[in-house]
């Protein structure tokens, strides 16, 4: 079983970007955490990052039939992108929304998520650990809803 771990805009800068908000963990560290967690559940991952909305949409479309689930940190597109929301609905691959920071404790414009209504659930505020929690949640979901 394979999962797609998908990261949106500016997450390539993780570790150096606003460390007071996002910590010192790099995207390479996040990838290693995801690989270890997936392995614990007998799964593999594809790990992607793009700063481009259309590229993220293409990857979500391509996940259908390729990946059993998606972990998505859509970055700021979370709060703006009807197109990403529609892509998730169209692909109908189970998806868990992740944010490193607690978006509900931040500016009001970060409280709204276009991803949340089409996600199994949302995990935020736990840094890179949130990705591992999301993989665990997908593993449990897939065990109950195979195929
Ligand atoms: C983020 C939260 C978003 O509001 C922000 O635009 C990001 C990162 C997070 O992981 O905490 O780019 O998705």
UniProtKB/TrEMBL annotation:
At which positions is substrate bound? 73, 79, 86, 100-101, 110
UniProt EC number: 4.2.1.10
The GO terms this record gives for MF are: 3-dehydroquinate dehydratase activity
Q: In this chain's numbering, which residues are marked as the site (Transition state stabilizer)?
A: 17
Q: Which residues of this protein are catalytic?
A: 22, 99
Which chemical reaction does it catalyze?
A: 3-dehydroquinate = 3-dehydroshikimate + H2O
Question: In the UniProt record, does the keyword Metal-binding occur?
Answer: no
Alphabetized UniProt keyword annotations: Amino-acid biosynthesis, Aromatic amino acid biosynthesis, Lyase
Q: In which pathway does it act?
A: Metabolic intermediate biosynthesis; chorismate biosynthesis; chorismate from D-erythrose 4-phosphate and phosphoenolpyruvate: step 3/7
Q: Does the keyword Mitochondrion apply?
A: no
- Record Pfam families: DHquinase_II
Q: Where are the transmembrane segments?
A: none
Q: Which InterPro entries match?
A: DHquinase_II, DHquinase_II_CS, DHquinase_II_sf
Query: What is this protein's function?
Result: Catalyzes a trans-dehydration via an enolate intermediate.
Q: How does it assemble?
A: Homododecamer.
Q: Which PANTHER family match?
A: CATABOLIC 3-DEHYDROQUINASE (PTHR21272)
Q: Into which family does the record put it?
A: Belongs to the type-II 3-dehydroquinase family.
Report the protein name in the record: 3-dehydroquinate dehydratase
The scientific name of the source species is Seohaeicola saemankumensis
Q: Which gene encodes it?
A: aroQ
